[in-house]
Fold this sequence. Notes:
The protein is of the alpha+beta class.
Amino acid sequence: MGALIYDGQSFEFDDRALAHLQAVITMKLRRREPFLLSWNPDEAEPIGRHAIWIDNAIPLRYEFLSPTPERLDEQWLNTLADQSSRASGLYFSPQRAEPLVV
């Protein structure tokens, strides 16, 4: 599990999900486009949903468990980037596994 550390608070994500979030957040912040990021934490947390305003003025850090960078899925990145531009912001959910073709 990696962590998104935002304004001093740590939020856990698996490394693959965090790598995709990092790419989308970096793209948005380079363009100076703040946005709302929300997600459901894992079932062990007492909070039902997190929502944070992502802005250049707020300190941000990523911590990955693995020393090897994750391979990014272009389709998932495009989906996340499109959602981040909506008025409701990016509602992040883990990537669905591809269905098996028999």
